Amino acid sequence: MAAFLAVSRTSVWKSIQALQSDGYVIEGSPRLGYRLLIIPDHLYPAEITGNLHTKRIAINREMIHHYHQVESTNTTLKNLADKDAPEGTIVVAEEQIGGRGRQGRFWLSPPGKGIWLSLLLRPPLPPQDTPVFTLLAAAAVAKSLKIILPELAVGIKWPNDLLINKRKVCGILTELKAEAEFLHYLVIGIGINVNFREKDFTPELRKIATSLYLENGRKNVSRQRLTSVLLNELDKSYTELLSDGPRSIIGQWKKDNITLGKKVVVKTVREAFEGKAVDLNEDGSLIVEGKNGIRKHFHAGEVTLVPMNGG
Amino acid sequence: MAAFLAVSRTSVWKSIQALQSDGYVIEGSPRLGYRLLIIPDHLYPAEITGNLHTKRIAINREMIHHYHQVESTNTTLKNLADKDAPEGTIVVAEEQIGGRGRQGRFWLSPPGKGIWLSLLLRPPLPPQDTPVFTLLAAAAVAKSLKIILPELAVGIKWPNDLLINKRKVCGILTELKAEAEFLHYLVIGIGINVNFREKDFTPELRKIATSLYLENGRKNVSRQRLTSVLLNELDKSYTELLSDGPRSIIGQWKKDNITLGKKVVVKTVREAFEGKAVDLNEDGSLIVEGKNGIRKHFHAGEVTLVPMNGG
């Protein structure tokens, strides 16, 4: 191997050792050389980039920042963004110890059990266009799951929760820095519960959350493969959005949503409004028709799907 | 004086020295004590708070951070906001050495010549509501100038430039940190050219900018008084906005605007659109009617007022 690569034996041995400490299982025998037995299911850049055909996102290894443990991938990526990291930079971590969902809620992110990934975008748009990016991310995750696990029924609850059998399998947290009329950057954080067993959830969380493993007949899902597919889908949708505007994103979101046509309660800081979710506006707002027939547009809010027993 | 305040002579002397080094001119005579001759026109908290009757903004001295020199009051205040400074916190500086306008443009901010002020708000609203705050700030500055200098004709160019005789006298830079649906904070930076002489501008800048001094028959304007009046107006408008929504802000903005009814070119990242500015939407967007009668809503853009010679 040393002769083939034109490097010293010591140099090969050092590289092998580094790989082994990263979880690769490599057998060495004195005459025959080395044999790779196990590639660890870690989200190392080298294991992801090979399957990417992206134009903007993670277009080289240096744009993928992998960590074994972070407080939060969004926080790490915002720090990189403040230091002028380029659009398309990714942070992935095996574990988040301070993972966050919307409005500062805790997001359980144990090591190796999920995809904890943040994406940096710098679209030349005003901050008013941000909600469309959240829809884009939700639609891209839904599509990726369909590609990998076509038999699962994944649905999007407005704006960006992904549910399987009424339980949450993915959450998205978009954060931004902007001027009033000009985005500096968007950081889109995506958390997918991939290989959680029941015991990996708290009992309260298990009532409302699930994982791909649990829904997939208790079979592990490759985080590496899902990450590559997801990055490809995100890249495709983002490119479409920049060239054609939000129409195709809105269409894709609608196709996979489980909110429209349903009776809902939307809780905002001002009210709790009950009605039927009738449509998604082009700016990403949810149009809800109240009992009196009045239609309201919601830019923000917490949606609860109301069971429509008998109606 | 030492007997009256029940402190030592040395303590009085030290305080007097501190005031003198802050620019207060104080005469001391061995028998009679001290006499205050000149209060410097610096924006010290003590010189501002006395005239405030605010409910949310700068409600105590600790909420006013005064600096002789900063890079940019917005940058300083964003750092304070990241460390959980409360809503209503203010940063004022005598001089900015890296003052910024929209999209990173330089903003000339020489010592003592202007009001360089940033205000921290934490409204419980989605980031989509940000543009209204920029309009609010522009309308509050316009109203404050009318109170102090009623004879000047101040007009607002959409969204937030204040002009006198077609030259810019004030600019506003609103920056924000947010989730897609939830504002963490807004920092509204206000720069007013108060006592600039001609020579304080560069020749290029003088063509498009002016100062209150130059427009006010070459009489100095008290920065302290203008700052107090401005903070009172900002507080009143913000309180109204929180209780009644954007309607009154929009009305106030319209009253002082010089954009509606005019022929304009709006430059965005995508296009340069020519038409007549026909109205301001409730979300702060400018409605422009093109030659073909089609109306476009602009959330962002650079407006040029087109002279309507003969038309």
What features would you highlight for this structure?
BirA Bifunctional Protein, domain 2; 30% helix; SH3 type barrels; 9 helices; 30% strand; alpha+beta; five-stranded antiparallel beta sheet; globular; 311 residues; seven-stranded mixed beta sheet; homodimer
Q: How many structurally independent domains of chain A? A: 3
Broad CATH class of the largest domain in chain A? Alpha Beta
CATH topology of the largest domain in chain A, which one? BirA Bifunctional Protein, domain 2
Radius of gyration of chain A: 21 Å
Pattern of helices and strands of chain A: HHEEHEHEEHEEEEHHHHEEEEE
Q: In which order are the strands of the major sheet of chain A placed?
A: 3-4-5-9-8-7-6
* Oligomerization status of the protein chains: homodimer
**Helical/strand content category of chain A:** alpha+beta
> What is the count of DSSP helices of chain A, taking H or I runs of 4+ residues?
9
Give the amount of beta strand of chain A, in percent. 25-35%
For the sheet with most strands of chain A, the description reads: 7 strands, mixed
Termini gap of chain A: 71 Å
Q: How many distinct beta strands of chain A?
A: 14
Uncertain stretches of chain A: none
What is the correct CATH architecture of the largest domain in chain A? 2-Layer Sandwich
The CATH H-level superfamily of the largest domain in chain A is Bira Bifunctional Protein, Domain 2
Instruction: Assign a percent range to the helix content of chain A.
Output: 25-40%
